[in-house]
Amino acid sequence: MNEHLFFQRALSPWMNEEGPDSDIVLSSRIRLARNMKRYSFPTVFTNEEAIQIVQLFEQLFSQKQFGDLGPFVLLKMNELQAIEKRVLVEKHLISPHLAEDCTFGACLLSEQEEASIMINEEDHIRIQCLFAGFQLKEALKMANALDDWIEQHIDYAFDEKYGYLTSCPTNVGTGLRASVMMHLPGLVLTQQMNQIIPAINQLGLVVRGTYGEGSEALGNIFQISNQITLGKSEEDIVEDLTGVVRQLIEQERMAREALVKTSNIQLEDRVYRSYGVLTNSRIIGSKEAAQCLSDVRLGIDLGYITNVPKTILTELMILTQPGFLQKYAGGALRPQERDVRRASLIRERLYQWK
Amino acid sequence: MICQECNQRPATLHFTKIVNGEKTEIHLCEQCAHEKGEMFMFPHQGAFSINNLIAGLLNMDASLKEQKAPSFHNEHVLQCERCKMTYAQFVKVGRFGCANCYETFRSHLPPIFRKLHGGHVAHEGKIPKRVGGTLYVRKQIGQLKQMLQELIAKEQFEKAAEVRDQIRELEAKLNTEGGASLYE
């Protein structure tokens, strides 16, 4: 396949599918961390070891079809340009750590980009599966299948007591990180998020903004994931997270209903103002763009706006990140230039749906 | 010094830019620096803070401190034979060097894991078929035995007999060959 597609399209093909509860849950992700018995972990391994591991995976996956997933394409970090790596990060296909620090890192991507296997990141192997909407169990099933296949060919570092051995003690055991990306404008508008976050943290789960590191959640998009990887089975971890996400979905739906009931016209006004900003502005920063996109997406979910597809939030959130903007511009952009570029890109994209 | 971008937060990052011999000084707070983004490829603070947190956690461990002072030799002894990582290095970077480190530092791990994993110290999840060897089979037997009990309770004796045979077969494998054939 043409690997340039990975860098050109902002929406991974799997994102176009409408998953369950996709009005609130944007995507579900499962990540499994695995290491090989006979090599030192990436923290201390030699360059020779690193190169050997990449070669091993290159052979293992060459010309192998994985059912619906098709063949995997191997991308080596030291053969990619900085902007290309950044684009993969913005699409959540690889981690910033792999792109920036792992000279001998690589990733294996499935055609539809729903599966990505990072090689030589913090651990030798990191299997990641992404699904649209709320489909954690499906994602776990796919990740397990890939894991089983790799295990037929590779001796994993596994301990009877501690399970899968990982570089960082926070991942030991199952090596599993399950996470969902949720769009929660209702809970933010009704100012409930500040109370919800500490409550979720107490359950051994982590909430954080998906874009814009730190406390702030750009575009009202939050990522919720498990913290504990040891002492619980994969199914239990997913089950626990699922329970909390279900509750959050309920709460968010209630908050939206309450908003419509108590301040319908204000909400509609807000949605259309944001739509106006996005379709008319000539300069827009990432923060304002994210907020407006969140409003428009809410407007679509509530039925105020009918001419724009739902995927617009995810697509434009990714498309207006610095890496993509520069990819489209064909070179480096200064922050002010980015804001101009971002505004014109959003206008162009929304014009399609007028 | 106040951040020159937002004029609100204190500037914590200071840069000096020299372009064609012209020197400009830039003072930013972390947030604005991230937003400007030209200094960093990626906002990467996550990795740092997690590292520090783990290292902090390991250092805080009272039992480790006690050990450090009186037995200097002990720390020297505690070095992974394979990757040469010492326990002190592990505490500092918060990362294991290889699978063998878990063996070398084994006696120190339970309190660390307990803190990181909500009191848990042993794996409960998936077992790899090949490397897991007998453990995988033992777990399978456990699951089948549970299934057997349920089937008996539901008086589905035909199915129960099938499950019983499966259990016998697996147990025979474990006993006669010491599980050796399971590694194939």
Automatic annotation (TrEMBL), chain A:
Query: Which InterPro entries does the record cross-reference, listed alphabetically?
Result: Arg_Kinase, ATP-guanido_PTrfase, ATP-guanido_PTrfase_AS, ATP-guanido_PTrfase_cat, Gln_synth/guanido_kin_cat_dom
Name the Gene Ontology biological process terms.
Answer: phosphocreatine biosynthetic process
UniProt keyword list: Allosteric enzyme, ATP-binding, Kinase, Nucleotide-binding, Transferase
Q: Where is the Phosphagen kinase C-terminal domain?
A: 24-255
Chain positions recorded as ATP binding sites: 27-31, 92, 126, 177-181, 208-213
The EC code for this enzyme is 2.7.14.1
Keyword field contains Secreted? no
Name any GO cellular component annotation. Answer: extracellular space
Regulation of catalytic or functional activity: Appears to be allosterically activated by the binding of pArg-containing polypeptides to the pArg-binding pocket localized in the C-terminal domain of McsB.
Catalytic reaction annotation: L-arginyl-[protein] + ATP = N(omega)-phospho-L-arginyl-[protein] + ADP + H(+)
* Top-rank taxon: Bacteria
**Residue span of motif RDXXRA motif of the pArg binding pocket involved in allosteric regulation:** 338-343
Gene3D superfamilies associated with the record:
Glutamine synthetase/guanido kinase, catalytic domain
Q: What does this protein do?
A: Catalyzes the specific phosphorylation of arginine residues in proteins.
Please report the name of this protein according to its UniProt entry.
Protein-arginine kinase
UniProtKB/TrEMBL annotation, chain B:
Q: Give the molecular function GO annotations.
A: cadmium ion binding; cobalt ion binding; copper ion binding; zinc ion binding
UVR domain: which residues? 138-173
A GO BP term here is: stress response to copper ion
- Coiled coil ranges: none
InterPro entries recorded for this chain? UVR_dom (IPR001943), UVR_dom_sf (IPR036876), YacH (IPR025542)
| Protein name as catalogued | CtsR family transcriptional regulator
